């Protein structure tokens, strides 16, 4: 997420960062404080950002680094008419108050002229100490030490958009934190047009609209698009008259960014040819809590939608997981603008996972592949791809010739494998209880 935001705002990782990528503290090269604040207003993965004044692998190295920091950059924050405090944060270790005071006193060589104010200071300085990632083997001295001026931090974004407080939700409404991470992976910015082909209750549209993008979506489920049928909330039988996607955006003051949501089959494009979307951000159904289906032939069984005012009729057929994802890639290759991004979740049966099964397309470059564990044997991977080549007619079915099309077909049975794992776990728990 942070890499995507850095590429959006013009920053980058420092060359030294590769040395300790597993550290919770990262060093970034960002041209201005304004840009740093802009990054922090968007990220949900980072907790705080600091202007780094010095760092080292020991206290001596840290102090030497601080003495070499340009005095003209320090002085504006050390004036006699200002107030400040120094805060210590240790990762993977707890210090006593006496130890903290000793470390703060060791910084007396810095020319602080202002007054200490612990409750409401103008400037806050932090000592950050990294004691590694292993709680069972905590070293006496930290691996890395940093000192800097606190610039910005935020975590309110997630809480204010909590799904629990949302007007219209479904069985699989996306967690607010993950929605913002996906929008950041997609590098969504003001005046973009963002599309979700499996829109559901519109949770992914909200995060994109928050960043100033115009949003739209489609879904095969007539009830969901029109806010009809059974409710997903506990103790509520049917959806209310104003439970719909538009109401969700209105709840957050984002209705002006809402284009529309249409009933449509993602496997059969309804859009005119051309590069229409700046980002496609979606969470396709896996067949666990929401069925995977598409419009079928008239010969197949006709099903009527429950409690529809239009008495709406549709014909559906099975839609294999592999077909869902390859149709999605083909659609993105054709309809994304150059440099536009596709961000989606790919369900994985972990014992069979290899990187080779990630669906590919000649017009799309794989940017990132991040895992979220669902259980001991299943996970889903957040896949981010970028359009790097203009779509030609010959690219339409090019993936069928690719050796990488067949490996993912094994995941068409993801539902069966998912529930087989659940069944085995229940059986094991019952067996353990009998002991």
TrEMBL record:
Ranges where the tRNA (guanine(10)-N(2))-methyltransferase TRMT11 N-terminal domain occurs: 20-153
Record domain Ribosomal RNA large subunit methyltransferase K/L-like methyltransferase: where: 165-294
PROSITE patterns xref list: N6_MTASE, SAM_MT_TRM11
Cellular location(s): Cytoplasm
GO cellular component: cytoplasm; tRNA methyltransferase complex
Catalytic reaction equation(s): guanosine(10) in tRNA + S-adenosyl-L-methionine = N(2)-methylguanosine(10) in tRNA + S-adenosyl-L-homocysteine + H(+)
GO biological process, one term: tRNA processing
Enzyme class at the top of the EC tree: transferase
Enzyme Commission number(s) from the entry: 2.1.1.214
Short name of any one Pfam family annotated for the protein: UPF0020
UniProt keyword list: Cytoplasm, Methyltransferase, RNA-binding, S-adenosyl-L-methionine, Transferase, tRNA processing, tRNA-binding
Domain of life: Eukaryota
Complexes and interactors: Part of the heterodimeric TRMT11-TRM112 methyltransferase complex; this complex forms an active tRNA methyltransferase, where TRMT112 acts as an activator of the catalytic subunit TRMT11.
PANTHER family found in the cross-reference section: RNA METHYLASE-RELATED, TRNA (GUANINE(10)-N2)-METHYLTRANSFERASE HOMOLOG
Function as written in the Swiss-Prot or TrEMBL entry: Catalytic subunit of the TRMT11-TRM112 methyltransferase complex, that specifically mediates the S-adenosyl-L-methionine-dependent N(2)-methylation of guanosine nucleotide at position 10 (m2G10) in tRNAs. This is one of the major tRNA (guanine-N(2))-methyltransferases.
Stated name of the protein: tRNA (guanine(10)-N(2))-methyltransferase TRMT11
Source organism of this protein record: Furnarius figulus
Record lineage: Eukaryota, Metazoa, Chordata, Craniata, Vertebrata
Name of the encoding gene: Trmt11
């Amino acid at each position: 997420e942070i890499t995507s935001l850095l590429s959006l705002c013009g920053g980058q990782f420092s060359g030294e960062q590769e040395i300790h990528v597993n550290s919770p503290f990262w060093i970034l090269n960002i041209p201005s404080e304004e840009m740093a604040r802009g990054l922090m207003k968007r990220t949900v993965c980072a907790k705080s950002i600091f202007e780094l004044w010095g760092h080292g692998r020991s206290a001596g190295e840290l102090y030497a680094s601080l003495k070499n920091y340009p005095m003209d950059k320090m002085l504006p924050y050390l004036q006699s008419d200002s107030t400040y405090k120094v805060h210590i944060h240790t990762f993977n270790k707890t210090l006593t108050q006496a130890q903290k005071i000793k470390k703060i006193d060791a910084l007396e060589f810095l020319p602080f002229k202002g007054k200490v104010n612990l409750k409401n200071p103008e400037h806050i300085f932090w000592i950050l100490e990294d004691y590694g990632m292993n709680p069972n083997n905590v070293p006496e001295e930290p691996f890395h030490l940093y000192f800097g001026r606190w610039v910005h931090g935020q975590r309110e974004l997630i809480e204010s958009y909590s799904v629990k407080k949302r007007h219209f939700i479904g069985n699989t409404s996306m967690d607010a934190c993950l929605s913002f991470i996906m929008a950041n992976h997609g590098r969504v910015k003001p005046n973009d047009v963002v599309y979700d082909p499996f829109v559901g209750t519109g949770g992914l549209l909200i995060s994109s609209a928050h960043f100033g993008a115009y949003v739209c979506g489609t879904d095969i489920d007539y009830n969901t698009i029109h806010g009809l049928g059974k409710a997903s909330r506990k103790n509520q039988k049917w959806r209310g008259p104003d439970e719909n996607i538009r109401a969700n955006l209105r709840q957050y003051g984002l209705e002006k960014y809402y284009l529309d949501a249409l009933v449509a089959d993602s496997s059969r494009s309804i859009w005119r040819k051309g590069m229409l979307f700046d980002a496609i951000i979606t969470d396709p159904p896996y067949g666990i809590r929401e069925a995977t289906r598409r419009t079928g032939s008239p010969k197949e069984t006709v099903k009527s939608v429950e409690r529809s005012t239009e008495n709406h009729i549709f014909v559906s057929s099975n839609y294999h997981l592999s077909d869902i994802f390859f149709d999605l890639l083909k659609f993105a290759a054709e309809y994304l603008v150059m440099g536009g991004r596709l961000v989606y979740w790919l369900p994985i049966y972990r014992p069979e996972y290899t990187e080779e099964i990630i669906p590919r397309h000649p017009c799309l470059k794989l940017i990132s592949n991040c895992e979220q564990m669902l259980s001991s044997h299943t996970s889903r991977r957040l896949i981010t791809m970028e359009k790097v080549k203009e779509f030609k007619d010959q690219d339409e079915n090019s993936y069928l010739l690719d050796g990488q099309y067949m490996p993912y077909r094994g995941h068409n049975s993801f539902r069966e494998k998912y529930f087989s794992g659940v069944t085995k776990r229940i059986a094991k728990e019952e067996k353990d209880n009998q002991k």
